[in-house]
Amino acid sequence: MDYIRVPAVYEKLKKAESEYRHVCIMASAGWGKSAAVRHFFKYKNPVNLYVIDGKLTEMPNPHISRKSIYIIDDLQKLEDNESIGYIRDLLRCEGVWVILITRGMLPGYLADIEMDLDFVRITERDFYLQKEEIALYFESLGVYVSEDTLGKVCRESLGYPRAVYCYANRIEAGQNMSKELNESVWRDVFRYWDEVF
C-alpha cells in the first residue's frame, strides 16, 4: 500500500525545508508521525537516530558524517544527559536540519532552543485524515464504500489514522456502519494503546 500523504503535514514539512527551520512533530501513538517523515525524506538520505533505553542509539559527529538532515524519533523516551546535550548542540550546528519526533509535548530541556530557533511545529491536528484521504486509504486496500459511509467514518474516527484502519478492516470483513461497529473500532484502538503504552 502506498503512503497517503496528509496535506497539512506535507505543507509544514515543505515550509520548514524551504526556510531551513527545525521541526518538532508532536502527537500520540498511531497518528503516523514516523510514516510521514519516512515518506517525506525517502530520497533525501537522512541520518535516523532513535531513543532506546532512555538514550540515543548513536551520536554521529555532523562535521565528520557530512550529512545535513537528522531525524530523531521517540524523543519522549530520552533521559540520558549526554544524549540531551548532543541534541542541543546538533540543533545549533550550522548547516544541519533536525526533525524531532515525540509523543506529547516538546521536552522542557529544549524549550529555550525551540523559542530561539522558531521551530515548525506539527501536531495531531495536522494529521487528521479528511474524507478525501480516507477514501484514498480505503481504495488502496480495495475497500469501496459510499460517500455517506466515508462521511460517517471520517466523523466517527475523528480523523485518527489508527481508527480509520480499524474501520477499513471491519468494513472489508462485511460489517456495516452502526453503533456496534463504532464501539468495536474504539475497543480495537484502546487495545492498540494498551499494547503501545
Compute the number of helices. 10
Strand count, sense and barrel status of the largest sheet are: 6 strands, mixed
Q: What structural class is derived from the secondary structure elements?
A: alpha/beta
Report Rg.
Answer: 19 Å
Order of helices and strands: HEHEEHEHEHEHHHHH
User: What is the 3D shape?
Assistant: elongated
Poorly predicted tracts of residues: none
End-to-end C-alpha gap: 26 Å
Query: Percent of residues in helical segments?
Result: 40-55%
Task: Give the rounded overall mean pLDDT.
Answer: 93
Strand order of the main beta sheet, please? 3-2-4-5-1-6
Tally of strands: 6
Which percent range describes the beta-strand content?
5-15%
Question: Notable features of this structure?
Answer:
alpha/beta; 6-stranded mixed sheet; 6 strands; elongated
Explain this structure.
Helix 9 (161-172) crosses helix 10. The mean pLDDT is 93. The protein is an alpha/beta fold. The radius of gyration is 19 Å and the shape is elongated. The longest helix is centred in the C-terminal third of the chain and has 18 residues, at 179-196. The chain has a six-stranded mixed β-sheet, sandwiched between helices. The chain has ten helices and six strands; from the N terminus they run αβαββαβαβαβααααα.
